[in-house]
Amino acid sequence: MAVHLLDTQYDADSYQKYRFPPSENLQSVIFSYLEEKKVDPVRLAVDVGCGSGQSTHVLAAHFEKVVGTDISEAQIEAAKQAASFPNVTYHVCPAEELPFADGSVDLITAFTAAHWFDMPRFMKEVDRVLKPHRCVALSTYTADFSMHYKDCSERLTEIFTETHDQLLKYADEKVNLVIAEYKEVFESMPFPDTKRVTQIFDKIPMSVSGVIGLFQSFSMYQAFLRSDPEAAKSLLQKTEQRFLETMGVCSNETQVEIGIRSACVLGCKGP
Ligand SMILES: C[S@@+](CC[C@H](N)C(=O)[O-])C[C@H]1O[C@@H](n2cnc3c(N)ncnc32)[C@H](O)[C@@H]1O
């Protein structure tokens, strides 16, 4: 069964504000794979589970037409409201029922979304809509985060990890696919030509308030908030205080870097 997320499980506003687009090195893994597989001409890319569109935008420069799809009307509404590109459109639909003709798509992506899908039904759709010799790239960031600021990176990373671990108690079981770095997603790929890359490192600059916003954008934080609003808000307030005290600064607009490690599963359809 697909996990049909209610719009309340993600806060589209937090998404729009605090989620960052696919990192540079992750993009480079995907586009190098497309080059290797000679995906040209590059007509249509479909970004499934596109959320508020940050991931969809990075495809715009590489494809004639890009369609972002998501099951959440609120996410698609937020995507439509955001500044975008003329060749990008959005559509509300489940990943397991893509509104594209057989053999019509050059690339399917899902950034930090595939773990929510009904995997066998989604993979069947991927196989149906892709043209022969065309590709799919399913990526996520792993649970391996770090936080960097001057000489206190180690302590900040510990605080970040403690908060992340507390939130994990509220994670849906589908998040286990992320913890396992998409091993099962890889194993369910229907194509013989596949590849899984798990050591993709990037550093994302953001403010301390941005780090707190990133936590707020996680579905597991939204679950905690629904279960115990006071405790959830207090956890993030305390986390912010601890960050600022450790850094010896007062402003939550102070810039830090968040280190992320992404995993990406790639596949190329046969003839
Ligand atoms: C973690 S967000 C990722 C959004 C975006 N790709 C990004 O990188 O910021 C996961 C998204 O998957 C969507 N989603 C979950 N289950 C889905 C399904 N079965 N079909 C389509 N979208 C789904 C959610 O609504 C949510 O917007």
Automatic annotation (TrEMBL):
InterPro entries: Diverse_substrate_MTase (IPR051052), Methyltransf_11 (IPR013216), SAM-dependent_MTases_sf (IPR029063)
GO biological process, one term: methylation
Entries under Pfam families matching the protein: Methyltransf_11 (PF08241)
This protein's UniProt keywords: Methyltransferase, Transferase
Keyword Hydrolase included in the entry's annotation: no
Gene Ontology MF annotations: S-adenosylmethionine-dependent methyltransferase activity
Domain Methyltransferase type: 46-133
Family annotation (SUPFAM superfamilies): S-adenosyl-L-methionine-dependent methyltransferases
Family: Belongs to the methyltransferase superfamily.
This protein's name: Methyltransferase type 11 domain-containing protein
Species the sequence originates in: Chrysemys picta bellii (Western painted turtle)
Name of the coding gene: LOC135980389
